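Final report, closing paragraph on structural work. Over the funding period we assembled a curated collection of sequence-structure pairs, and we close with a single example.
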Amino acid sequence: MPAVPAGPQQLPERILDAALQGDQDTYWRLLGQWLQTLPWTGLILSTLGCGLVGAWLGRRHGRLWAGLGWGLLLGPFGWPLAARNPRRKPPPLPR
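Its predicted structure, as stored:
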């Protein structure tokens, strides 16, 4: 069979195959190119916004840092955790 010339459609496929076969240089180059395509400003701002909303909700329930942490970690899914009422301490044991 004659060799098929590498066209523009086959080049990304060959690079991906090389990266999956263990070529470290190709892997890191692909990862770097992929990371450059992400909208970093929007991702960071939305994460900070979710953290601030979580902190606000947590502050209303006496759990500012827990709210901030849940908001930053889980985003909007952490807001119900931030809005929970704090656990009540059990009454002290009689002596």
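The mean pLDDT is 83. The longest helix spans residues 40-60. We thank the funder for supporting this effort.
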